[in-house]
Amino acid sequence: MTVTGGTAGQLVPVLEDLLGTELPIRLRTWDGGEAGPAGAPLLVLRNRRALRHLLWRPDELGLARAYVAGDLELDPSSDLYELLGAMARLVEQSSSVTLRPNPRDLLGPQGRRLLRTAVGAGMIGPRPPLPPEEATRVRKAGVRHSPQRDRTAISHHYDVGNDFYRLVLGPSWVYSCAYWPTGTDTLEAAQAAKLDLVCRKLGLRPGMRLLDVGCGWGSLLLHAAEHYGVEGVGVTLSAEQAEGARERIADAGLGDRLTVRLQDYRAVDDGPYDAISSVGMAEHVGADQFRRYGTTLYGLLAPGGRLLNHQIARRPNLPGEPYRTSPFIAAYVFPDGDLSPIGDTVSLLEQAGFEIRDVESLREHYARTLRCWVANLEQDWDRAVKLSTPGRARVWRLYMAASALAFEENRIGVNQILAVRTGPDGDSGLPAARAEWLGFQQGPAAPEAPESGAPSA
């Protein structure tokens, strides 16, 4: 271990004593002290408030609050992904250790040492204010997954500025996993390939009626209308997304064929549709609402119609192990969001009446997509901060980079499920072979898009 004194030199030995192992990171404190394993990624504590965040919430949420508030820094000379991986190991190591012992525990030598260090480092004190980016207002907006609370939760995540999202996502303005066939080198080309993949799986043809649930900024609707000749309706709960999508549709001269509504999917009543796409939306539905989600979409499809459900999935619980959502994600990123195992999603769609015809995992594709988004954000960091807030930009950097690691390490996945509402005679309307229906009525090859400025990961 390298030690250069200061508060870090006092703090690290005590933490390692508590954990019973070497820290996976080095610490640098506000007084210039540095301690920890040589060569380990570096975490910078800018002031005593960073320690108070951790005292009051000694887990990933405490670390996140300190970072979002600007009291803790991720050292720019350390690899971001290596540092986040080390922080995750630190959280795991500390999960069985309390940094707030009972008073009786302070009577022993270890307790007295901990107390002296805590007092000397300025850890003892009131809880620091919560960063304003935390989704506290969502919890006050009524019953979980009621229409009002869902609108508030969606607004928290998506109504943070269309220009901010355009900077992060690039010109494609697509906020879901891209598709990287061999030889695809740019984010824009990969997103165009994903949009085309969805359209081909849905078997879109001129004159069809498409419903895009959670339509975002309208990229899929535009692609489907321009390349496949469909008429489309998009629904979203984000006012800013709806405004941005309508502007893009008007600019493309497609206002006579495409409509975007600020509407809950549960309120859509103008079926039947020939095809329904739901890309990156079902994570917001809620586990207790998913059966209703499936039944609603089934009822909106014409017989023979197809649903393409593109959704992030978590790994199943081990026996006796409860499901725990990330406290950081729940508090800052996707309030009220739920991830379900792919098997549960398939079963619930079947219970709603669908026949499942295809499941494709895109896990590695999402990791690469997220790394591109992080690169876009970092390359234009100052503008991103001006378009939102310093805290919001930090939230997005942290969650996107951590999510990339989660996909790479197979802790979460993402899948496209193609489901069909079969006709009265059981006809699915699909060609006999998967290779045939995947290319069925294929539109023109998506053009190679210009570089977005983000390197391929």
Automatic annotation (TrEMBL):
Enzyme Commission numbers on file:
2.1.1.-
A Pfam family the protein falls into = CMAS
Q: Give the matching Gene3D superfamilies.
A: Vaccinia Virus protein VP39
- An individual GO BP term: methylation
Question: Does this UniProt record's set of keywords contain Iron-sulfur?
Answer: no
What keyword terms does UniProt attach to this protein? Lipid metabolism, Methyltransferase, S-adenosyl-L-methionine, Transferase
Q: Which GO terms describe its molecular function?
A: methyltransferase activity
Family membership noted in the UniProt record: Belongs to the CFA/CMAS family.
State the name under which the record lists this protein.
Class I SAM-dependent methyltransferase
